């Protein structure tokens, strides 16, 4: 019966206009509706499928401001059993390395975890590095970009999908898995699940509770920094080539001029 | 209560997500009548565990009744009256939210579900014997099967009982049914149909005064014809039909309660029991229309530019939006008030429910017509959806008792008549 931890993140809704704060390039959380990242819904779903087939327990772990509780509740309403929420003003502006460190400490609080399931990348930052860094910090195998997960006793088998193709991976628990878009279709939370979510335990921790010095986290202490951010330039009208017998060479000339061929 | 609870809001968010992904992409097919709403309703029930919830509730009710009958106890009036399969136990708001959200995108779907569960199944639950409940309800409460509830006839709308011509005559231990019904929601597809008919005892009692009995019919019975869907002004996603009964032989096991002398009164009383719930339910439906119109209009007013600025800057547009807000506040308060009263076990009187139905249906129709006007030429086009909301909303002024009847009943309540 696997003891599963699912990492979830509250992100600005991809359907709304997302912005970074002008002063420090951190996420402007007021600019858009906050939702549970869709890839995390798939991570939760995969954990629930494993639990339904094999038993065990599903714990949700999230690092985020107070209002990330909504995303945690959504995961609980889908069927996760309990949650750990790390919320601390000192974490504001943390980069992937710092976040992974905090997550590693938080996962350590879940006694006897067997498997950590995460989304392969969040729809806001899109760094896609946290699962790998976390596995490294925990000293366990990483099986990333999974499109299929099988668990047989303590043996984990994963189909990893990348641009190069499909790789079959195998590891022993404990391990970290990150899932991709194709892994499953997440369920809707049932009415019963929504009503039950209110009563499920959510442990709220600060960085101090995790034994981490506040001086190691946050924007001021980040290993990476954002120097500049600009919105995508608006799409411009394309260039039309009229074919007067020399259409082919004109297109080739254009592509050469753009250094595309 | 002045706002939805956190749980309510989570339910609403989940339902909106489902509607966005599963229903909105099919609205055109639903509106053209190419897609009956039942598969989507079943999907909705499964997604939110409504089928399991309703099955559990039904099982508890039937187990209790079985235990009581075995011990020879009489059922209390309160238990007989418990007809709520959804939203019991402090969660009355869930059903209201579901109703309201569905009406913002496809009122017909809600009508199909509401009639099957709230009228068809609920009538069997309130009036049937244990055996009848066990026979028909398990598949109806999950929407696996669909029910229709047949009261209205071509010559009797608001005067449903007085003008009723459908007739049963005794035939051995059973009955023979003749007549016809019209405007029957789910009529074309229903697996199970609850039919109201007058008993002809052959003793010369005038038609108007005869006793009303209720029967349950199954699809495909000899002499029972279910018409194709009728064309309507709106509510297109709800199939409406005519029913014809030509010497349909009915065993006594199809007479609800298996007695002509039902403890709950005759068929007239059975129908009236549902009036208050049905009428306050219209307020929840109206709220869904108003919310959606307001959402669409605010968005459109900010985007649509004329004379170089958004139309939201023009005061006549602002007037429309402000009127929608007044409507939203009023109707939402009526809905909140009704939820509170249901929780306290103090339902509105028939006169109050009639006043709520009249006001909320008329208001939703005005809001939706204003929305069409605000959208201008676009509003008259189907693509922008507000014209559908206007056609759907108009039905609220007619069904569940025409507004003329609601007004009279409100006044009668005041005058003590």
Automatic annotation (TrEMBL), chain A:
Keyword Ribosomal protein: no
Keyword Electron transport set for record: yes
Pfam families recorded: ETF
SMART domains for the chain: ETF
Top-rank taxon, per record: Bacteria
Any one GO cellular component localisation term in the record: cytosol
InterPro entries from the UniProt entry: ETF_a/b_N, ETF_b, ETF_beta_N, Rossmann-like_a/b/a_fold
GO terms assigned for molecular function: electron transfer activity
All residue ranges annotated as the Electron transfer flavoprotein alpha/beta-subunit N-terminal domain in the record: 24-214
Listed cofactors: FAD
Keywords, in A-Z order: Electron transport, Transport
Similarity comment text for this entry: Belongs to the ETF beta-subunit/FixA family.
Subunit architecture: Heterodimer of an alpha and a beta subunit.
Name of the protein this chain belongs to: Electron transfer flavoprotein subunit beta
Species in which this protein is naturally found: Herbihabitans rhizosphaerae
Lineage per the UniProt record: Bacteria, Bacillati, Actinomycetota, Actinomycetes, Pseudonocardiales
From TrEMBL, chain B:
GO molecular function: acyl-CoA dehydrogenase activity; flavin adenine dinucleotide binding
Names of the cofactor(s): FAD
Pfam families listed in its UniProt record: Acyl-CoA_dh_1, Acyl-CoA_dh_M, Acyl-CoA_dh_N
Residue ranges constituting the Acyl-CoA dehydrogenase/oxidase C-terminal domain according to the UniProt record: 265-414
Matches recorded under Gene3D superfamilies: Acyl-CoA dehydrogenase/oxidase, N-terminal domain, Butyryl-CoA Dehydrogenase, subunit A, domain 2, Butyryl-CoA Dehydrogenase, subunit A, domain 3
Family listed: Belongs to the acyl-CoA dehydrogenase family.
Protein name according to UniProt: Acyl-CoA dehydrogenase
Organism: Herbihabitans rhizosphaerae
């Amino acid at each position: 019966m696997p003891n599963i931890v699912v990492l979830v993140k509250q992100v600005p809704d991809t359907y709304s206009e997302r912005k970074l704060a002008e002063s420090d390039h951190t996420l402007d959380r007021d600019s858009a509706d906050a939702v549970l990242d869709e890839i995390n819904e798939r991570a939760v779903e995969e954990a629930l499928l494993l639990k339904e087939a094999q038993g065990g327990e599903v714990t949700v772990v999230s690092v985020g401001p107070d209002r990330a509780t909504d995303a945690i509740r959504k995961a609980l309403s889908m069927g996760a059993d309990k949650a750990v929420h790390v919320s601390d003003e000192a974490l504001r502006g943390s980069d992937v390395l710092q976040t992974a460190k905090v997550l590693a400490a938080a996962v350590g609080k879940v006694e006897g975890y067997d498997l950590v399931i995460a989304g392969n990348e969040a729809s806001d930052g899109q760094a896609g590095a946290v699962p790998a860094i976390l596995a490294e910090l925990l000293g366990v195998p990483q099986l990333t970009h999974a499109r299929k997960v099988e668990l047989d006793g303590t043996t984990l088998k994963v189909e990893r999908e990348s641009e190069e193709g499909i790789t079959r991976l195998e590891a022993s628990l404990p391990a970290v898995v990150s899932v991709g878009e194709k892994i499953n279709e997440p369920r809707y939370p049932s009415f019963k699940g929504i009503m039950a979510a209110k009563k499920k335990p959510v442990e709220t921790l600060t960085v101090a509770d995790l034994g981490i010095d506040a001086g190691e986290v946050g924007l001021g202490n980040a290993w990476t920094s954002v120097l500049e951010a600009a919105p995508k330039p608006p799409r411009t009208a394309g260039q039309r080539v009229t074919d007067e017998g020399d259409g082919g060479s004109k297109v080739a000339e254009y592509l050469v001029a753009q250094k595309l061929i | 209560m002045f706002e939805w609870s956190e749980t309510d809001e989570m339910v609403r968010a989940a339902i909106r997500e489902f509607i966005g992904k599963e229903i909105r992409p099919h609205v055109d097919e639903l509106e053209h009548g190419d897609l009956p709403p039942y598969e989507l309703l079943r999907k909705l029930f499964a997604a939110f565990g409504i089928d399991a919830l309703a099955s559990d509730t039904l099982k508890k009710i039937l187990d209790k009744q079985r235990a009581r009958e075995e011990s020879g106890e009489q059922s209390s009036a309160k238990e007989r009256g418990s007809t709520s399969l959804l939203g019991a136990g402090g969660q009355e708001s869930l059903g209201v939210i579901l109703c309201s959200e569905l009406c913002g995108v496809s009122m017909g779907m809600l009508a199909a579900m509401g009639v099957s569960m709230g009228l068809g199944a609920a009538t069997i639950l309130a009036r049937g014997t244990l055996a009848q409940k066990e026979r028909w309800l398990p598949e109806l409460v999950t929407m696996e099967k669909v029910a229709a509830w047949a009261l209205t006839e071509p010559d009797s709308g608001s005067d449903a009982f007085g003008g009723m011509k459908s007739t049963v005559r005794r035939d051995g231990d059973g009955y023979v049914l003749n007549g016809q019904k019209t405007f029957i929601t789910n009529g074309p597809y229903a697996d199970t149909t609850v039919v109201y008919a007058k008993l002809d005892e052959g003793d010369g009692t005038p038609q108007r005064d005869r006793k009303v009995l209720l029967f349950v019919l199954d699809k495909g019975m000899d002499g029972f014809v279910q018409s194709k869907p009728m064309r309507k002004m709106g509510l297109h996603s709800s199939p409406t039909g005519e029913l014809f009964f030509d010497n349909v032989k009915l065993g006594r096991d199809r007479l609800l309660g298996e007695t002509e002398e039902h403890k709950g009164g005759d068929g007239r009383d059975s129908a009236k029991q549902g009036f208050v719930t049905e009428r306050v339910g219209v307020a929840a439906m109206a709220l869904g229309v108003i919310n959606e119109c307001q959402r669409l209009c605010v968005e459109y007013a900010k985007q649509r530019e004329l004379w170089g600025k958004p139309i939201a800057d023009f005061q006549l547009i602002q007037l429309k939006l402000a009127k929608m807000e007044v409507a939203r506040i009023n109707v939402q308060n009526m809905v909140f008030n009704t939820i509170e009263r249901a929780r306290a076990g103090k339902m509105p009187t028939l006169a109050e429910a009639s006043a709520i139905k009249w006001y909320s249906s008329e208001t939703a129709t005005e809001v939706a017509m204003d929305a069409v006007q605000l959208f201008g030429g676009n509003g008259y086009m189907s693509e922008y959806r507000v014209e559908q909301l206007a056609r759907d909303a108009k039905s609220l002024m007619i069904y569940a008792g025409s507004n003329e009847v609601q007004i009279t009943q409100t006044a009668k309540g005041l005058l003590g008549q």
